[in-house]
Every structure is written in C-alpha cells, then in structure tokens.
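General statements about sequence and structure are easier to judge against a single worked case. For one protein, we set the task of working out the structure tokens from the amino acid sequence alone. The sequence in question and its structure tokens are set out directly beneath this paragraph.
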Amino acid sequence: MELDRDSCVLLNDSYKMPVIGFGTYAPEKFPKNLAKEGTKVAIEVGYRHIDCAYIYDREVEVGRAIQEKITDGTVKREEIFYTGKLPSTFHPPERVRLALEKSLKDLQLDYMDLFLIHSPLGFKPGDNLFPVDENGKLIYANTDLRDTWKAMEKCKDAGLVRSIGVSNFNRRQLELILNMPGLKYKPVCNQVECHIYLNQSKLLEFCKSKDIVLVGYSVLGSSRGEEW
C-alpha cells in the first residue's frame, strides 16, 4: 500500500511539509549501507519526507539513495522534502553555515527543505560531536541560542535552506527565540519526542498558538538503543 503523497501541513513560511516522514537514525552497530537501501525503499513506497541529521553519520548514504531515485525517474528533487539538523557543537554563529554546507555536500543537494537546531544544548565546538572531559562527562558550551538562530536565518536568506526550525526545545527556549529583537523568521516547527507515554499536550497547545508545527519522533517507540 502506498502512502498518501498529498498529505501535507502548511508551515508558517508558506512551504508545505509532508505529514509522515521516514527517519534514518540507527545505532552504530547497523551497517551504513542499510540507510541507503532503506531510504530507497521508503521513496519507492511513497515516502517524500526524509529525515536525517549530521550526527547520525548517514547523510552520505541517504543522499546517494535520493540521487539514485531521482536518476531512475522515481521522483524529482522538488518532490522530496529533506530535513537536516545542526549539531550541538556547531551552535556558534560562525559555525552554523559550515555544518550546513558539509551536510549538503554529503547529500549531493543544493538546498535543504528544512534545517533544525537539533538540540538547545550546546557542546564544546570541535571535531568531536560529543566532547567529554577526563571523567567522561559531556563538555557544554553556552552559545546564546538567539545568535545561533540569526545564523540560521542567514542560511535561509542565502537560499541554502527553505525553512528553519528547532528540535527538542521546551516552551521557554522557544520563547527566547520568538521574543528576540529583530526576529526575521519564526521557527516553522519543533521536533520532539511524542507518543502515548509523553503526549506533549501543553507544548502542543503552545506551538499551535504561535503557528509552529509540533513534529513528533519515536511516535511508535524507538529502537535507537537497548536502554530505551
């Protein structure tokens, strides 16, 4: 059975986002080529929203899958809605575009349809996406999220992304951006864990009041790790 390709939600910047997306995260123990094969099958059965992220370390394979399905005529680029995410080590404004351009190169894409701040928590900038100290504790960095958001807006103005949003933000963190001086673009969405055991009802109502789409992940549970 094919998915309904016309089921979309209108974002606050007038772009349309397919309601159902194909997530591409997998624990490291799974071969990366499965991300490519899984994405190809997803496109073949009707998925048009593909969700990945810099830290998943799967964008090269996902990009190859997209390109192969474009080449064989299954889809056109404009029919694919790609969501990517800014890693926590790239929150400083001068690093935002660097991460985006790296993802676009790996994906073989000229632009992203949606680019999210993956988490409100910033980590120490550097090559290690999860920097830790001598005690194995994550090393955090306190970049002002408003500065990060301004850099996201510049990426949109440059045509590298169509829509920008956030992920794993609570109400207070959303308000920090919404109330910032000189705000040019509101987040179009907030992607958060959402399922029957964590229904996010209060956050959903707040997002609705601000014309921000709440996007759920792990809606049927998750296999991202045995401890989950």
